[in-house]
Amino acid sequence: MRVYFDNAATTPLDPSVIAVMTEAMNHLFGNPSSIHADGRMARAAIEEARKKVAKLIGASIGEVFFTSGGTEANNMVLKNAVRDLGVRRIISSPIEHHAVLHTLHNLKKTSHIDVDMVAINEKGQISLDHLEDILRGSNVKTLVSLMHANNEIGTMIDLDAVSELCARYGALFHSDTVQTLGFYPINVSKTKIHFLNGSAHKFHGPKGVGFVYINADSMIKPFIDGGSQERNMRGGTENTAGIVGLAKALELAYTHVEERRAQMAHLRNLLISHLLEEFEDIQFVGDTEGGSYKVLNVSFPPTPKSELMLFNLDIAGISASGGSACSSGAEGGSHVLDALAIDPTRKCIRFSFSHLNTEENVLFLIDKLKSMTPVLK
Ligand code: PLP
Question: Is residue 343 in some structural domain?
Answer without folding.
Answer: yes
